[in-house]
Write a structure and sequence with these properties.
There is one protein chain. By secondary structure, the chain is of the alpha+beta class. The protein has 5 helices and 14 strands. The chain has helices at residues 8-57, 108-164, 170-201, 210-227, 340-345; strands at residues 62-71, 75-77, 83-87, 95-96, 101-105, 230-232, 237-240, 249-250, 257-260, 266-272, 284-289, 293-305, 331-338, 353-359.
Length: 362
Amino acid sequence: MTDVTISGPEISAFLKDKQVGTIDRVTQRKEVRKRLFVGLAVLLLVGAAAGGAWWYAVAQRYVSTDDAYVDADSAQITPQINATILDVPVTDTMHVNRGQVLVRLDASDAELAFAQAEANYGQAVRHVRQYFANSGEAAAQIAARSSDVTRTKLDYDCRAALAQQNAISAEQLSTARNAYETAQADLVAARETLASQQALIHGSDVEHNPEVLAAKAALDTAKLNLSRSVIRAPFDGVVAQKTAEIGQRVQLGQVLMSVVPVNRAYVDANFKEGQLKRVRTGQPVTLTSDLYGSRVVFHGRVMGLSGGTGSAFAVIPAQNATGNWIKVVQRLPVRVALDPAELAAHPLRVGLSMTAAIDLTK
């Protein structure tokens, strides 16, 4: 076996080369670290610039929220008379048109009431016509009584002249005077009768007499109640919450179903109070729904801002006057009207979730 002997100069050279290699690796690491920091700084600058550009071009122009829901002014269908249901030709989720029959009620009681009111109206017309006839008769009686007064006065004057000549007895003169006074009293009575008859018809004809008008109002009411035995849809919409069943006895004001006008739906978007500084009526709004996704975009306009927050109108409003009060950011509903054409192409239903963004620059 051969022994290898390493001299001192060789060892020094080896150590020197190793030291140089170590320094080179440290230098390389510092260079890589420097480049990474520079790259990171560039990325941060680019990100900040992109964020600033996005804020300038988009963020400051819009406020958005995903706390928005579809709503509509639904109509509650209630009977206006007490009756029994005969037919319900509609069902839940069924689309109905304005004027379409929703419920038919038993009209027997209403028909009887209408017949009674019609008879009362005819009787009232006859009574008033009789008042006019009685007034004419009373006027004729005045003419007759006036004639009697004239005749009896002439007879009395004649007999009074004869009595001064003692040509007739005192009894005959008294009889003539009594006849004259009686004729005068009958004339006064006839005038009072005419006044009472004219008071019944004063200032009106048969159709506008108070008795006839009252009977006509009762007849119209009975006719209206008869027409209310058929309940019709107030507008186009979808039937919801139907509780009406055939044979059910319903009372005045009882809710039988609702009709939701889906073609007139709107959106209530709940924005944070800090987002509303620049929101104005009429500003354009873009919306998307969870139902159709982002591929369908709805367009609308701000109709107005609610008069108060949801918590303010709660059944039990929050009482913040306590020592443990913690500020909570409030949300205010903003009503958005939707484009009818887009709504017809892509119908929405009440309660669906929406995302709304308001353009503040318009």
